[in-house]
Inverse folding.
C-alpha cells in the first residue's frame, strides 16, 4: 500500500505531465509551477510531511528523547502496528546518535554501534515480515540521514566501524 507522501508525489508528477500535451491550439500553454513551489505549498498546507533539512546534524528534538521531531512525526505516518512504532523510534534514536557521536571516542563509537545493532534486531523481530523489517530499516535510515552533512557524518561512522565485530543482541534487541 502506498503511503500518503508517495501518492501526493505521484499526483504532483501526474499534474506536471498533464501539462505536457501534443495540442496545437493557438492559446499559450499554461505555465506549470516549479516543483519547489508545489512542494512548499504541500508542506505548508500539511498535506506533505516536511523533514528537517537544516545543516545541523542533530536537528530539532524539542522533547529530548534522542529522536528528531520530524522523524518522530514520520514514524507516526507509517501505519506501523503493535510494537513496531517503539522499535522504529529505538532505531531512529540509534541512527541519530551515530550522526553525532565523537568519532575519536572509542567507547562512544562502540556504544553507538551496539545500540544500532540492537535496534536493527528489534525492528526485524517486531516487523510482520523480513521484507517489512528491511524496508523499515532502510526507510528510517533515508529519513534520518537526509542531508549532505548527515550523509557525510553517517559515512564517516560507517567507515570507522566497517569490519568491526559487534556482539549479538540479547533477546530481541528491544529496550
Amino acid at each position: 500500500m502506498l503511503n500518503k507522501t508517495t501518492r501526493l508525489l505521484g499526483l504532483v508528477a501526474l499534474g506536471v505531465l498533464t501539462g505536457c500535451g501534443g495540442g496545437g491550439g493557438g492559446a499559450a500553454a499554461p505555465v506549470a509551477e516549479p516543483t519547489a513551489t508545489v512542494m512548499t505549498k504541500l508542506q505548508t498546507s500539511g498535506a506533505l510531511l516536511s523533514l528537517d533539512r537544516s545543516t545541523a546534524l542533530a536537528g530539532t528534538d524539542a522533547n529530548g528523547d534522542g529522536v528528531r521531531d520530524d522523524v518522530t512525526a514520520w514514524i507516526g505516518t507509517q501505519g506501523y502496528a503493535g510494537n513496531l512504532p517503539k522499535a522504529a523510534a529505538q532505531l531512529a534514536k540509534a541512527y541519530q546518535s551515530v550522526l553525532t557521536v565523537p568519532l575519536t571516542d572509542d567507547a562512544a563509537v562502540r556504544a553507538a554501534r551496539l545500540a544500532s545493532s540492537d535496534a536493527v534486531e528489534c525492528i526485524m523481530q517486531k516487523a510482520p515480515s523480513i521484507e517489512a523489517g528491511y524496508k523499515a530499516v532502510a526507510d528510517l535510515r533515508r529519513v534520518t540521514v537526509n542531508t549532505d552533512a548527515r550523509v557525510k557524518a553517517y559515512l564517516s561512522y560507517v567507515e570507522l566501524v566497517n569490519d568491526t565485530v559487534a556482539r549479538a543482541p540479547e533477546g530481541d534487541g528491544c529496550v
